[in-house]
Amino acid sequence: MSMSFDRYMRDMIQPMRDELTSLGIQELTTPEEVEAQVANAKGTALIVINSVCGCAAGQCRPGVGMALNHDVVPEQLFTVFAGQDKEATAKAREYFAPYAPSSPSIALMKDGELVHFIERHSIEDRSAQEIAAELTEAFDRFCK
């Protein structure tokens, strides 16, 4: 029995994708989808750079989930998967200047402008609750 590496990886990471999409976050898998959704986005948009690493599983995705239970949330919710949807991730990262590529990471945009960004180094040593608290503060500030 033989399975291709690409198929194996898709199957292995699907639950990691589902953890965000089950929250109503739209997955963007191509640069064209990113461009269409982010370039001219009006209002507020959350973009989660998903990843297979432990801090994505233990802190980032759970923190995002907790934050989305807040009364005030972004109007649009998106995710790209670093290391899997490489071109879509690269396109999304173009909007996050001056920040270096980082995964996982979380961006909050308002009318196409980056207004808040959480880099990997601010995720890996914090709890999901701390990340959720930072996000809800940003939501209160920029999404009202």
Q: Supply the number of structural domains.
A: 1
Structural class: alpha/beta
Number of strands: 5
The averaged pLDDT comes out at 94
Beta-strand content bin: 15-25%
Unreliable stretches covering 5 or more consecutive residues = none
Helix percent reads 40-55%
Separation, N- and C-terminal Cα atoms:
54 Å
Largest sheet: 5 strands, mixed
Q: Encode the helix/strand succession as letters.
A: HEHEHEHEEH
Sum up the overall morphology in one term: globular
Subunit arrangement of the protein? single chain
Number of helices: 5
> Strand arrangement, largest sheet?
1-3-2-4-5
Radius of gyration: 15 Å
Provide a descriptive summary of the structure in words.
- This protein has 144 residues and is an alpha/beta fold.
- It has one domain.
- 43% of the residues lie in helices and 19% in strands.
- The chain has five helices and five strands, in the order H-E-H-E-H-E-H-E-E-H.
- Strands 1-3-2-4-5 form a five-stranded mixed sheet, with helices on both faces.
- The longest helix is centred in the N-terminal third of the chain and has 17 residues.
- The model has no long low-confidence stretch (mean pLDDT 94).
